Amino acid sequence: MKKQMKKGFTIVELVVVVAVIAILSAVLIPTFSGIIEKANLSSDQRAVQQMNTAIAMEEEKVTSLEDAVNALEKAGYAVKNLRPLTKHREFLWNKDLNAVVLVKTDEATGQKTVEFPTEAKYSETFEEDLAAGNVLFNLCDGAKYIDVVAASRNDLRDAILAGTKNISLKKNLTIDNESITLPDNADIVLDLNGHKLTAGYQRPFVMSDGSKLTINAKDSIVDCTEYGLVNVPQNTTDVEIVINDGTFNASLDNGAFIKVRANSDDVKITLNNVTYVENSPAEDSKGNANYCYVMNTNGFSGNMTLDVVGGSYTADFGFQVPKNATATFTNVKFNTKGYAVYCDGTSTVTGCEFTIGTKVDVGGGHASALGVANGGTGVIKNSTINLPAATGEHYAYVVYPTGGKITAANNTNDTYYIYDLNSDAAAAGVVSVIIIDGVSYVE
Questions:
Q1: How far is CA 279 from CA 13, 161, 252, in A?
Q2: Cβ neighbours of 83 (radius 10 Å)
Q3: In CATH, what number does 148-442 get?
Q4: Helix-strand-coil percent breakdown of the chain, rounded to 5?
Q5: How far apart are CA 393 and CA 398, in angstroms?
Q6: Domain extents for the chain?
Q7: Vertex 311: Cα angle to 264 and 253 (nearest 5)
């Protein structure tokens, strides 16, 4: 019996089939991808609508980010893992409108735009919201998500001691007679969330090696009594302190808002738009003269960076800028009984306004906008300097007996005093000069 051979596909036929499949794939895959992306976008938009419905149902209670998070979790959302299905999108909560919006990031330019809802009231661009102060919070981004909501002093202490990244106050709190030390290498963001924090007796926040503390205090009030707010202990290294916004009231007992102690090193401090109002008694608790500071660094000789932008500081004395420190003050208002900036390091003052009193520091520091000592250098420009009408030891600029250099330009008051160099400074060849609008003055 003769076997019949089965006929297979030829090479040409296989090539044709493969080519047809490739053509169909090239046509259909983008189409399917576009359909999937549209479906994802539609799903994300529906999610925004549903989240806003959930928030609206809690309208009287939702006044902050954590309230919005709680409302959404109550509605069944796992907020910490909440991410849009569509690429390059974020769910953000608009504080001003108390609503969730879908924001798109342009892959090429990085520009962010509010994609949904499309109503004009939500603004067209992310930048417009930022400029208007309508802060947009990422609901699930690790840098913004509220890990712990502190409703009591114990909550706050436990969260800090555990090194919790993000902490938000739920209500007004008082920390009395207690100092909370951040763990080594902790990076803690404390959002006061419009609530009031009262710090009694001790400075409540104590830094440690490698630690960073950010305090966001917009629309919040902090009352500091006795000593101040933040302490950098001796022998502490690699520390960063950031304070954003807020009003800080102080009634101190020979204290300082920020105290940086001897033998610490590598300290970075940033103050943005802080309103600091000190109203300390003339005498301390022992009946002696009371000397209080915004930042006190007596004995500190390590490396430091200080950046003060905006805001206002009403105090006995302002900032001590130590040796090996670099400080910038930009568009700051000072109202001090004594000196505003006392510099042993390097300071640059730009566009500031000073109202200076007549109080002399316990160490002999004159009332002045800017004083330099121990070979320090200072630049002050485009600033308004107001001095009292009464005669006394108060000047726009002072160079102390240990020497230093001040360069001043385009300021409203150029009164100055230059001490004779002491023998040690003279032997070391330290300069003692003030340059005002290009003219040098040497005593």
A1: 93, 32, 8
A2: 14
A3: 2.160.20
A4: 20, 40, 40
A5: 10
A6: 45-138, 148-442
A7: 55
